[in-house]
Amino acid sequence: MQKTRKGLTPGLIAIVGFLTVCPVVMLILGSFSEGLNAFGTFTLSKYVKAYTDPAFAEILVNTAVFTIGSAIVSTVLALFLAYLNTRTNIPFKFMFRIISLIPMMVPHILFAVSWVLLLNPSNGMINLFLRQVFGWEGAALNIYTLQGMILVEGLLDLPIAYLVIAPAMSAFDVSLEESSKVCGASNLRTLVRITLPVLRPAILAAATLVIVRSLASFAVPSVIGMPGRIYVLATHIYRVVATGYVTDYGMAAAVGMSALAASITLIFLYRHLTREGEKYVTVSSRGYRPSVIDLKGARYPLFGIVALLSFVLIVLPVLVLFYTSVVPYSMVPSAKAFAMMSWKHWIAVLKDPVSLLSLKNSLYLGVGGATLGMILSFFVAYVIVKVRTKAAGFLESLSFLSFSFPGIVVGIGFMWFFVQTPLYATIWALLIGYIATYLPYGIRPLTSAFVQIHSNLEESSRVCGGGPFYTMRRIVIPLLIPGIVSGWILMATMFVRELSLSVVLSRPGTEVLAVQILRFAEDGLWGRLSALGILMIFISTTLVIIASRIGAKLTKVDK
Amino acid sequence: MEISIKGLNKNYYSEGKTIVALDQVDLTIPANRIFTLLGPSGCGKTTLLRCIVGLEMPDSGEIAIGDEVVFSTEKGIYVPPDRRGLGMVFQTYAIWPHMNVFDNVAYPLQTRNEPREEIVRKVAKTLHFVQLDGFEKRPATKLSGGQQQRVALARALIAEPKVILFDEPLSNLDAKLREETRKELRAFLTELKITAVYVTHDRIEALSLSDTVAVMKSGRIIELGTPRGIYFDSDRRFVADFIGRANFIEGKVASVGNGETTVDSAIGAIACEKKINASPGAAVTVCIRPEFIRVLKGDHKVGRNIFRGRVESLVFVGDAYEGEIRVGETLLIFRIEPTTAVREGEEIALHFDPRHCSILLN
Amino acid sequence: MKKLIIFVVLVLFAAPCVFAAGTDAKGSAGQALAEKAKAEGKVTFYANITSVEPILEDFGKRYGVKAEYTRLSTTKFIATIMTEHAAGKLTADVLQAPMPVLEFLMEKGVLASYTSPAAAGYPKWANKDGKIQSFGIEYAALIYNKELVKPADVPKKYEDLADPKWKGKIVMADPSSHPTTISWLIGLKENVIKSEAEWMKFLKGLAANKPMFVASFGPTPAPIESGEKLIGISMPKYIITKAPAPLDWAKVSQPMMGTPRGMAITAGAPHPNAARLFVDYWLSEDAMKIMAEKVGEYVLAPGIYPPIAGIDKAKVIPIRELSDDEIKKWGGEFKKIFAAP
C-alpha cells in the first residue's frame, strides 16, 4: 500500500502541476517582461505601476469586504439549510437539493441582471412596489452598493458552500451531539458548542472556496459594482485591461498576483487549521441514524424562510429569464409588455447554427470534462487525505493555483501556454483548461467525503485479498459516491456555463454556450441571451438529474 | 502456520519527534494456537499486528509466515496485504456499509473470482458457522454490534486463511455480550485449528482466550508464556501489575532457605515459596494477588505470614467482597467470599499463601 | 466637413462608374480569384464587429467558400493576435477591428498590403498605407427612450446632457476605461465644442448628473429601454438591432462622431486568395447594404445608410485616433472629473 501511495504523489504532482503551473508561470513571466507577451526582457515596471496606484488601497478594502462578506452570507445560509435538511423534521426536504443546485446553472451575469431589475434605485420592481404601497420617496433599496454585491454574490456561491457542508452534516456522528444534550445543553448550545466546531473543516472549506471564487468573480462586480462605482480587484483588472487598445495582460497579471497571494495564504491557513484531520473522522461502519430534531411550532415559519430563499434563488431568476426571453426588449412588466410577448428570440436562437453548435460543445465539455476531472480529483483527494505528507499539502495548494487567479487573467495565461502546444484552438484546450482551473470543485467534495471513510474499511479489503485497484473499485469509490456525484455536478454545471477561459480559448468550431451568451450580451440582445440561458439551465438540470439518479442507484445496498 | 519475526523495528515521526513503536522485536508465533499480544495502549501491539498483516511497513527486520518470507529489509521483500492470504477482524469491524451481509462475507472469494455457486455455498456455510443463517440479504449497517462482529469474523474466516488476526475485536461490545462472544470465539478457533493472533489490552480476554500471551511495553515484548505462567510466575512488576490486581510490598531478602525465601518488609517478614535467585540483603518486592489473601476469623496472633490490620473499606461486587485493609502504614487490597462476615473498621487477621507470594527483582 | 460632403456628392455621381469597374473585375480577374479562393476552401475572419453572420452566410452561398468567424472583444484583440503571431499560429486570414488596433498590428508587421478594387468609391482617408481599409464608423450618439422623454426635452445639442434635469437618468460606458467613450469625449473637444473651458464645463455638468457607468456600449441600451435610465451615450445601431424597443437618437445640430472600423489581410494568411475575395465582397455594395440594413452600422460605401430616420442627413465624422498613452492619460483625467461630487 505504501509503495503505491509513494508512486502516486509525484505522479499527481506532475500532472496537476503541468495543468495549473504552466499558465501561471506564463502569467508570472508576462508580469515581469517588457512588451505584450510572456517572453520579453525583464522589468519590474509593471509591478511598480500596478501597486503604486493610489486607488489600490481602497480597492483592496472593497475586495476584502466583498469576498469575506460573500463567504459569510453563503456559509451561514448553507449551514442553515444543511442543518434544517439533515437534522430537523422540516417539511418538503426535496426543495433543499433544488435550492442548492439551481443557482449553479443560472449564468451569473443573468442572475446579477435580474437583481438589478428588482432592486435598482430608479425603477427596480421592489422599489416601485415599496413606493406605491408605502409611499416611500426615492429609492428604498439600492442594489448598486457593496451590500448589494455581497448579497448577490453570496447567493450565487451558496451552492458551493452547501455542497461542501451538507454531506459532512449528514455524515456527522450523532452521539457527539447526544452526549452534549445529556450534559444538559440545549439544542442551540449543542449546535454552537459541538456541531459547528466538529464541522469546522467543512465550514472552513466552504468559506475558503467561496472567498477564492468571489475573488475571481466578474459578473457581480461588473454588473452591480461598476454602476455603483464600487471597484474590486476583478473590475480593477478589467479597467487596467480595457483602457486603451493595446491591452497589457502582463500588467493585469501583476495585479492578479495579489489575488493569487491571498488565495494561497488562505489555503495555507485552511490546511493549518484542519491539520488534525484524524480528529474529525466521524463516520465508521457502525451505521448512523441521525436523530431528527422536532421543530414543533417553528416548523412552518422556518420552512417559510426556506421557501423565500428558494423563491429568491430559483423562481425569481428563472422567471425573470423567461420573461426577458419573450418580451421584445428590456421592459418593466406591464400590460403592454404582456401584449408584445412572442417567441421570436427563441426562434432566432434555435435557428442560429452557432448557438446550436455551442449547445453541443458545452454538453460535451460538461459531461466529458466533469468525468475526466473527477477521475483526476479522485486521485488527488486520495493523496491529500490519506497520505498527508508535505508533498500532499503541496499538491493541494497546486490544485488551487489557476482557480485562484481572476478569470480574465488566467484565460490569457492559458492562451499563452496553449499556443506553444498543438492543442491550441481545439476543444481539448478548453477541456484541459476547464479541468485545470476548476479542479478544486472536484477535489473539495471528495476530500470531505474521504476524510469520513475510516481507513479500516479500506485496509480490511486489502487483507481480504483485494489489490489496491480492486479495493478502490469495490470499496473506496462506492463509499465516495455521494462525494463523487456532488463533485461531478459542481464541475459539469460549471463547465456548461464557463466563460472566462472560454472567451479566450474558443475559436470557430469550439464555440461554447457562455461565449455565445456573452456575444448576445455585448450586442445587448437580452432576449436571445435569456432564451439560450434557459436552454443552458435545461441542459444542466438534465445532467444533474441523471447524475443524481445514477448516484442513488449505486449507493443502494440491496441490488 | 507458524509466524516468525526477527529484529523488527518501526519508528513514527510526528512533529519532529520520533516515537518508537517497535523496538527490535523477535518473536515466534506457534502454529494453530491462539496467541495474544497484550499491553497498554501505545505499547506497539497493534503496530506489530499491522506489520504482520502488511498494513504497515517496518523500518527493518524480517517477517515470515510459514515458509514464506513476507517482509524482509535485507532481502528487499514486501508482500502486500492482499497477497498474504490472511484474515483479519478489525476493532471497528470495518463492515462495508454500502454492501449487504452476503457481499461483505463473500468479498474475499470475489477477489479471487471464485465461481458464483461456490461463493453462495461457502457464504451460507460460514454464516451458519457464526450462527447468522439467513442474514445474507440484510444491509450490514442494520445489524447489532454483536452481529456485525460475527459478520466480520465470517469474512475473515471464509477464505480459510492459515492465520487470522484480531485487533481488539470485542472492545465495542457490552460486557455480557463480550463474555459470550469471547467463549464463542475460543470455541470457533479451537474447532478450526487455525493460527490466531489476537491483540487486546483486556487481561481477562487475554487470559481466557489464549494459548500463549505476549506482554508488550514500549515496543518490546517483555514476557512470553502461558496465561497461568504469566499470571502466577512473572517476575516483572509491570507484568504482574498489568495482568491482574496485586499488592506490592517492598522489602529486603532476609534469608534464602530450602525452597523458601523470607523477605523483611514494612508489615513484617513474608515467607515466599517461589524460587528466586537473590542473595540476602537484596532489595525486592513481594507480590501477592488479593485473591490469595485469606481472612482469618477469630483471634489469630501474628505469625508466619499472618498479619493484623483494620478493614478500611469494603465493596460488595456480587461474587465477592473487595476491600482495603491497613497493616501498619501499608494499604493492601483483598478479596473474600461474599458470605464472609467482615465489617468496615473491624480488626482482622490475614494470611498470605506462601505458594502465591512471588518475589520481583527491583 | 465641407470636403467630406463634396466628396460624398462626388462619389454619388461616380457610383455608376465604380459599379461598372466592379462588374468588370468580376468578369476576368475576379473570376480567377474566386476560383482560387474556392480551391482554398475557407477563410478565417477575426473580428470585433458583431451580428455579421448574414454577410458571412451570403458570402458562403455566393462563392462556395466557408467564412469562419471568431469574435474577439477589443480588450482581447491585440493580446490574442500577438500571441498567435509570435507562436507562428495566427490562423486568421482577415482581421477587422477599430483603427488604432489595426495600426498597432500594422507596426508589428502582422498585416499584408492589399487595396481592394471594391473600395474604389470609399473616402481617401479610409485607406491607410495600402494595408488597412476602413469601411464604417462605430458611431455614438445620445440615445433616449422615446416613450418616456417628451420631444421637447430631447437634447438639441450635446451640451444639453449637462442639464441638471437629467440627474440620475443617464447611462454611459465607464469614461475612465472604455476607449471609444474616451475618444468620443475628446472628439467633442476637438470637433464640436468651441472652447476647452466650455468643454470642461460640459464634463463637470455631466459628472454632476451622476451617470450610471457600465463596462462598454453593449449594456447601455437595456437600462434605457426598461426606463431605469432615460438617456445615454450609446450607439444608434441599437435602434435597429433592438427594435421594437422605444429607442431613438437625439438629432443634435452637431456632427456625429465615431471611431473608424477597419479591416486588413494578415501577412501570412493561410488562405490568401480567399482573404482577398472576402475583403472584396465585404466592401461591395451588397455586403455593405446588409450591414447597414440588418446591423444598423454606419458604412462608408457611398449612398448606403442604415434605415434610421435622419441618419442620411447627419454628418458623421471619424474621430482622430488617439494613441494608447493618450487614452490612458485621459482615462485617468476623466476618472478624477467623474469621481468629484
Question: Could you characterize what this model shows?
Answer:
- Chain A has helices at residues 2-31, 45-51, 56-87, 94-105, 108-119, 125-134, 146-170, 174-182, 187-198, 200-216, 219-225, 233-242, 249-273, 299-326, 335-339, 344-351, 353-387, 390-399, 407-418, 427-451, 455-463, 468-497, 502-505, 513-522, 526-555.
- By secondary structure, chain A is mainly alpha-helical.
- In chain A, helix 3 (56-87) runs parallel beside helix 7, helix 10 runs antiparallel to helix 13 (249-273) and helix 12 (233-242) packs antiparallel against helix 13.
- In chain B, the strands form four sheets. A six-stranded mixed sheet of chain B has the order 7-8-9-3-10-11, sandwiched between helices. A five-stranded antiparallel sheet of chain B has the order 2-1-4-5-6, with helices on one face. Chain B has a five-stranded antiparallel sheet with strand order 14-13-12-15-21, with no helix packed on it.
- In chain B, strand 1 (3-14) and strand 2 form a beta hairpin.
- The radius of gyration of chain B is 25 Å and the shape is globular.
- The model of chain B has no long low-confidence stretch (mean pLDDT 86).
- Chain C folds into two domains: 2-137 and 258-316, D-Maltodextrin-Binding Protein, domain 2; 138-255 and 319-339, Periplasmic binding protein-like II (D-Maltodextrin-Binding Protein, domain 2), CATH 3.40.190.10.
- Chain C contains twelve helices and twelve strands.
- Mean pLDDT of chain C is 85; it is low at 7-26.
- Chains in contact: A-B, A-C.
- The interface between A and B is large, with 30 and 42 residues.
Q: pLDDT below 50 for ≥5 consecutive residues: which ranges of chain A?
A: 277-289
Specify Rg of chain A, calculated over alpha carbons.
24 Å
End-to-end separation of chain A: 30 Å
CATH topology category name of chain A: MetI-like fold
Number of domains of chain A: 1
Task: Provide the CATH topology of the largest domain in chain B.
Answer: Rossmann fold
SSE topology sketch:
The complex is a heterotrimer of chains A (559), B (362) and C (341).
Chain A: H1 2-31, H2 45-51, H3 56-87, H4 94-105, H5 108-119, H6 125-134, H7 146-170, H8 174-182, H9 187-198, H10 200-216, H11 219-225, H12 233-242, H13 249-273, H14 299-326, H15 335-339, H16 344-351, H17 353-387, H18 390-399, H19 407-418, H20 427-451, H21 455-463, H22 468-497, H23 502-505, H24 513-522, H25 526-555
Chain B: E1 3-14, E2 17-29, E3 34-38, H1 45-53, E4 60-65, E5 68-72, E6 77-78, E7 87-89, H2 101-111, H3 116-129, H4 145-157, E8 163-167, H5 175-192, E9 195-200, H6 203-209, E10 212-217, E11 220-225, H7 227-233, H8 237-243, E12 247-256, E13 261-265, E14 268-272, E15 283-288, E16 293-296, E17 306-316, E18 321-327, E19 330-336, E20 347-352, E21 358-361
Chain C: H1 2-27, H2 29-40, E1 42-47, H3 53-63, E2 66-71, H4 74-86, E3 94-98, H5 99-107, E4 127-128, E5 132-145, E6 170-173, H6 179-192, H7 196-208, E7 212-214, H8 221-226, E8 231-234, H9 237-241, E9 247-249, E10 256-265, H10 272-283, H11 285-295, E11 298-299, E12 316-318, H12 324-339
Helix pairs in contact in C: 2-10, 3-11, 6-12
